[in-house]
Automatic annotation (TrEMBL):
InterPro entries: Bact_HTH_transcr_reg, Chorismate_lyase_/UTRA_dom_sf, DeoR_HTH, Tscrpt_reg_HTH_GntR, UTRA, WH-like_DNA-bd_sf, WH_DNA-bd_sf. Keywords: DNA-binding, Transcription, Transcription regulation. It comes from [Clostridium] celerecrescens 18A. One of its GO terms (biological process) is negative regulation of DNA-templated transcription. Pfam families: GntR, UTRA. This is GntR family transcriptional regulator. GO terms for molecular function: DNA binding; DNA-binding transcription factor activity. It comes from the Bacteria. SUPFAM superfamilies: Chorismate lyase-like, Winged helix' DNA-binding domain. The keyword Transcription regulation applies. The lineage of its organism: Bacteria, Bacillati, Bacillota, Clostridia, Lachnospirales. Residues 9-77 form the HTH gntR-type domain.
Length: 254
């Protein structure tokens, strides 16, 4: 067994994820109130400040509701959402969350010089070479997602083969090759028609839709450096996102 750098998640993020799983396991019939912060802190063996930060994040995502003088409550509507836009989730799990069997095919692994846009986004040297790894994800055998990951060759070696991309994610390739792990991303969302999608992809013709939802993502590593620029194409017949938004519409009136 090879040893690779371990992922060291932020403590409050770990507590947040633990609380989210705990909330999902609750029987909320008639009672949606969570234990107080000091009780959660004691049970989890972490500081009250850490618990508060985790609850702050869950509140921003609409998972919990804080009512002054009464406590923290689970938002039952949040638990009815199959696919939340907020957490970045691995594509196969995303498809399974929508109720389908997921399979994946590697469409292409290509090596080329980064264009000006990618050089700027990933902060590369002019003329630096990158890999583009294109995959298509199927839902019950139907094309549902195409992903294209772009990253510097220096992060994965100069001889990345198609076989290496089969059965493993780009995140794992970079972690094993260069001790680089992804901690967050920033996305821009748009739509594309079929012609635009086919111009951007190798396997776009396999998609069964006339238009797609597109995410352009910049993925940052543990040192807050952009290391992957990805484009994701979604057939919304199979992948439907939901987002709970916390409203601040009365802020100016207070």
């Amino acid at each position: 067994m090879e040893l690779h750098p371990m992922i060291k998640p932020n403590l409050s993020s770990s507590v947040k994820n633990y609380l989210y799983k705990y909330i999902r396991s609750l029987d909320l019939e008639g009672n949606t109130k969570l234990p107080p912060e000091n009780e959660l802190s004691s049970n989890l063996g972490v500081s009250r400040v850490t618990v508060r930060r985790a609850l702050d994040e869950l509140e921003k995502e609409g998972i919990v509701l804080r009512i002054h003088g009464r406590g923290t409550f689970v938002n039952p509507e949040a638990l009815n959402i199959q696919v939340n836009l907020m957490p970045g989730e691995e594509f196969s799990r995303l498809i399974e969350s929508c109720g389908y069997k997921a399979t994946v095919e590697v469409a292409d692994v290509r090596k080329l010089k980064a264009d000006g846009k990618v050089v700027r986004i990933l902060q590369l040297d002019d003329g630096e070479e990158i890999y583009e790894v294109e995959k298509i994800y199927l839902a019950n055998g139907h094309p549902a997602i195409i992903s294209i990951d772009r990253f510097a060759c220096s992060l994965a070696g100069d001889d990345l083969q198609r076989e290496a991309a089969e059965g493993t994610s780009t995140f794992e390739i970079l972690r094993k090759s260069g001790g680089c792990f992804i901690v967050r991303d920033k996305i821009r969302i748009e739509t594309m028609n079929r012609m635009e999608m086919e111009q951007e992809t190798v396997c776009g013709r396999k998609m069964e839709c006339d238009s797609v939802l597109v995410f352009h993502g910049i993925n940052y590593n543990q040192d807050n450096r952009p290391v992957i620029y990805d484009t994701e194409f979604y057939d919304t017949k199979y992948i439907k996102f939901s987002l709970l938004r916390v409203k601040n519409v009365y802020e100016d009136e207070i």
